[in-house]
Amino acid sequence: MTIDALFEASDNQQADAALSITIARPDDWHVHLRDGDMLRAVLPYTAAQFARGIIMPNLTPPVASVADASAYRSRILAARPEGSGFEPLMTCYLTDLTDPDEIERGFAERIWIAAKLYPAGATTNSSHGVTDLAKITPVLERMEKIGMPVLIHGESTDPDVDIFDREDVFMETTLLPLLKQHQGLKIVVEHATTSGTVDLVRAHAPRMAATITPHHLVINRTSLFQGGLRPHLYCLPVAKRESHRQALRKAVTSGESCFMIGTDSAPHMRSAKQADCCSAGVFGGVTALQTYVQVFDEEDALHHFEAFASLNGARFHGMEPNKSTVTLVKKPGIAVAAVPIGGEDIVVFRGGETLPWSIKA
Ligand SMILES: NC(=O)N[C@@H](CC(=O)O)C(=O)O
Ligand SMILES: [Zn+2]
Ligand SMILES: [Zn+2]
Fold first, then answer.
1. Is 10 part of any domain?
2. Distance 123 CA to ligand 1 centre (A)
3. Which residues carry this modification: N6-carboxylysine (predicted)?
4. ipTM exceeds 0.95
């Protein structure tokens, strides 16, 4: 990693010094690429930022077998822009009916590298998720045995639990017992949003880790209501109060190896967001690295950026960091405001805004 003053000729031909940082190319350990036209529209943005990505399996129907995952992987590879070496890392969607032998076969054949646990009804396309953890005990035992991580959307699905408490309640009522029951199981808490969650993850590292999104580092729950209701900032888990955002910023910039990038870039058509019942998901893939590096800069922690962005996730998943690099420059840039699909579009998180950091072309 190098942190430098980069000299570039500016418009008026004077040499301006801009802060820059060069790191091993990052990976995105949690991304939704969808399928079909949407896949083809959004993949180039993720492939421009990241070398590899853990692809979420919540399609309809879900990616729940070796054959499904293998076919989906081929569709992603076929949708890559020309010359892109982006590598999709597949996951299996756990259901009440998941077969431990199928799980092991996909892992042994390197078709998938992890399984995704959605409590049924917790989030977008989770209706086929697990209704009761007891139903997948043999699956989790097998995963523990073969060293295959489970990636968890950690929110309680009890309708009586306040939406802002669902993550903490899940950790208390479901994750703690799970940790006890499966003491060797590797667990990633996806899109952590509370101070309680990051503390829990720290306490159980290194077999436990967490992904943290760019949006949860820059918005809090008040942002959702800034001047009116902001559907494009609505995702699950919903953004929490400011003290939690501060705890997340501390966690990612701390240098601790249990925290890694996971954009949770989750595209939905504008019409699905600006609707009577807005779909959950923030499309952050286009501005992810610009946002993350800005946070590290603001927290005076650029020296810890490469660990979070490019090393911690690879180490957790037993992979080498990428050999290629990316350079980010503290030079204002404007990302596209929306990505068109057919006659419609998908609104980009922080798109159209002037961001203080850019990716060097
Ligand atoms: N994060 C979200 O709000 N939505 C995700 C699902 C998920 O990751 O929970 C999606 O698929 O749209
Ligand atoms: Zn989720
Ligand atoms: Zn997600």
1. no
2. 6
3. 116
4. yes
